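Here is an idea for our session: we take a single protein and study its fold together. To get us started, please write out a protein record for me. Start from the sequence, derive the backbone structure tokens from it, and show both lines together. Go ahead whenever you are ready, and we will take it from there:
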Amino acid sequence: MGSAPNWVVKLALVAVLTVCSVIILGSWTRLADAGLGCPDWPGCYGQLIVPQTAEEIQLAESLYPDSPVEVGKGWLEMIHRYLATILGFFILVIAFGSWFYRRRLYYPFKHTQLLLAVVLMQGAFGAWTVTWKLWPQIVTAHLFGGFITASLLSILMLRLSRMGRQVRPLRLQDRRISLCFWALIGLLLTSVQIFLGGWMSANYAALACSDLPTCNGQWWPAMNFAEGFNLSQTIGPNYLGGLMDGEGRKAIHVIHRFMAIILGIYLILMARKLWHQPEARLHFFAGLIMVLFTIQFLLGLANVYWHLPLPVAVAHNFGGACLFVTMMCLNYFLFSSRSRVSYE
């Protein structure tokens, strides 16, 4: 069995670090209201860089009279695009180079092609985010796509590291199918919570409730669920700042809170089940999941208590990505055909 090509492993590691930077900068751009810092795509006011001089700004504003130039927000958006383009190039090189190694035993060739397809779709989502003026459906899908890209890259690293090595069987006390079921449901609940968080951010509902543990002094405030979870919003209006009324935003916020409690209870039970296995690798996942969720929960509380400070909000977004990646890796670990099982 041959080991993975050294250059692929190193480039995949660089891509993992790059996607982390893209996720952090993307959330910073969105939360700083810089998602439309450049009103066009792929350039910025028709240029490859943000307009700087008085003449360039005057020309830009004549081309886009409804979008006055804000240089700081423009640079946030463009640096995010530059970094995302670099990430896409790294993944393209990995996917193209994989054709030369596709016949190696256990080489994740199909995985690299799927990764390329996902990052190309991410590029399309990025373009639509701007051209469709922060349409919440696309903003949420773009966020989720970034998390999926990070997960696929992390699993790629795991698969490459296992090439050419004897994989030690998993030592389990329970039936494998039972643990797979727990992990799969955990991933599903985590995905639902991430969707709710992304939907809340895309509709500017993070500050709809300004206190804890109640929402504006009420345990169950007046809420409009039909508006809050209306997935048929039209393309066209500028969604910067959000278009929902207060009751629609409160519906999203409150459901996100309740789902966090449900997810937390489930992850505690799942981690307990993993910890009771004789397999040390599952103990690692159990501990990591609990640490990540605890940090996420505290960051969520801090967002409400301190009224969404930008660094805390960005950290909360990145923490969600880390938790999702961990759950994806756990599912791969349990479902992988190479994870042979021995029972005790």
Summary: DSSP finds ten helices and two strands in the chain. The radius of gyration is 22 Å. The mean pLDDT is 94.
